[in-house]
Amino acid sequence: MTTPTWTKQLADGLIMRAAAPEDADRLADYNARMHRDPGTEIDAFWIGEWTRDLLTKPHPTTPPEDIIIVEDPANGEIVSSTAYFNQTWSYEGIPVPFGRPEIVSTHPDYRNRGLVRQQFDVMHEWGRQRGHLMQGITGIPYYYRQFGYEMALEMPVMKTARVDELPKWGDAEDRDVRLRLATRADLGFVSALHRASQSRALFSVEVSESEIGYQLFDRDRRSALSAQPHIIERANGEPAGFMLLKPVLPIEQAETRLVEFKDASACRELTTSTLKALRERLEALTDESGKRIKTLSAFISGTCPVHQHLDKNFHNFYPSARPYAWYIRVPDIARLLKTIAPALVKRLKGRPHEGLTGEFLVSYYRYGLNLKFESGMLTGIDHVQWPDRHLAAVRFPDLTFLQMVCGRKSFAELHEMFPDCSAKSGVEADLLDTLFPKRLSNTIFAMS
Ligand SMILES: CC(C)(COP(=O)(O)OP(=O)(O)OC[C@H]1O[C@@H](n2cnc3c(N)ncnc32)[C@H](O)[C@@H]1OP(=O)(O)O)[C@@H](O)C(=O)NCCC(=O)NCCS
Questions:
Q1: DSSP string computed for 348-406
Q2: Which pLDDT does position 1 carry in this prediction?
Q3: Dihedral (C-alpha) 132, 138, 142, 145: value to the nearest 10 degrees?
Q4: How far apart are CA 35 and CA 44, in angstroms?
Q5: Is the CB of 1 under 6 A from ligand 1?
Q6: Is the pLDDT confidence value at 426 over 90?
Q7: Ligand 1 atom with minimal separation from the 106 CA
Q8: Is 70 exceeded by the pLDDT of residue 142?
Q9: Quick one: pLDDT band at residue 318, thresholds 50, 70, 90?
Q10: How many A from CA of 151 to the centre of ligand 1?
């Protein structure tokens, strides 16, 4: 066993420490047990394999020591663990250093003692040292609010269809599309599709070609995050799009997580044929016990134009019909806004606020922000403690301002939801909607 790169003594004799490659089997086994769905006997091996990948293969952005283990020396067991992924997101082209806590759990005998809270303190401190302007996690309902997170960034809605209701090739129909497994030689094409898709999103994830390569080709087949990458080809072999497909025969379901076409006309022209090719592919799959894929779920960013063409064939099933949300933490909102200011002020052009000069106080009651504009430029963003509510241009309870910063809600929607969210007048409300428009993000490559 190697000496961990860092350790921390906790109460009750517990030790918090960095994970190391030697922990791979034990931590994979622990995570598979802890993330088992309640009421089932099957360990979540897909989380176990994800963990093993992280500790045994070089990860493009996250070393093993960014995975935290809490151990009880009294019995030598792992009793709690989390991981912290280092990422860069993009806000309309502006890089935003981002940290992503994940794979969070505590053994049932050690719960409600603050073990996860202490690991979040460590990860938030890493974030501070590394200049992360935001943290985000997709997680269980409510829990992460307790660590300063707001469910502020929309996730894609899952749409599901029965495979036998998807469009089907006619007997004599020419195949104008075929699906072939992607190889590393396709990485340039996939990366170009991703870059093009970023222009449609508020936030998206900056991923290098080699990181896309890791995500598509280097994971264990059984990892929660692995899927089969497919190129959508025209009959003449020309690549027209890309798709991630994950058929899981034991549960007779398949999922597609990403469908991107080269351009809008390819999307219009080829979506129906792609569904036909997909149906043919899924219907051909079977295992030794005779299981077949019965349903296909699409978990695709709303920023992707393919949605409007899919809608004819897919039905929203409750309970997944309502989109879930990322938990977002912004440790220093002034710093984030200063970073993305060029994108914010660009939106004033051509609007009644063009060339704005003056101060604009955003209050979230205990704290606030004073935005200073000069000739349409944001020249100052200062923290204010106990802002005077009579002077505030707009007021938001708790962390709800983040709903606008992350594009999830308009000011009117927040005003409707929270009686203590208000603006001095419609002018201030409109300025806020101009600076922070409601807009979807694309976080597909955040799944490190
Ligand atoms: C949810 C889980 C990670 C909590 O771990 P834990 O070590 O008990 O968490 P902590 O004690 O640090 O919890 C911090 C706070 O949340 C509270 N809390 C604990 N479990 C909670 C839950 N399921 N929901 C809401 N609050 C919870 C604690 O009481 C504590 O409150 P306090 O700080 O005001 O005292 C643990 O129950 C678990 O592993 N569950 C199964 C796996 C899972 O769901 N992981 C999360 C995947 S996103």
A1: TTTSTTTT--EEEEEEETTEEEEEEEETTEEEEEEEEES--TTT-SEE--TTTHHHHHT
A2: 64
A3: 0
A4: 6
A5: no
A6: yes
A7: 39
A8: yes
A9: low
A10: 17
Bond preceding residue 323 cis, omega within 30 of 0: no
- With a 6 A CB cut-off, is 135 part of the ligand 1 pocket? no
Residue nearest to atom 18 of ligand 1 (CA): 112
pLDDT at 319 over 80: no
pLDDT at 200 over 80: yes
CA-proximal residue: ligand 1, atom 43 (nearest): 105
Are 16 and 48 a contacting pair, CB within 8 Å?
no
Q: Evaluate if residue 317 carries a pLDDT over 70.
A: no
Distance of CA 393 to the CA centre of its chain: 32
CB of 148 closer than 6 angstroms to any ligand 1 atom: no
Count of other CB atoms within 10 angstroms of residue 408: 25
Which tokens in the block code for residue 97? 């250093």
Is the CB–ligand 1 distance for residue 222 below 6 Å? no
Residue 111 Cα to ligand 1 midpoint, Å, equals 7
Place of tokens 């996939």: 190
Cβ of 117 closer than 6 Å to ligand 1, yes or no, is yes
CA–CA gap between residue 339 and residue 88 (Å, rounded): 13
Answer yes or no: is pLDDT of 84 > 60: yes
Q: Which two tokens stand for residue 135?
A: 């943290």
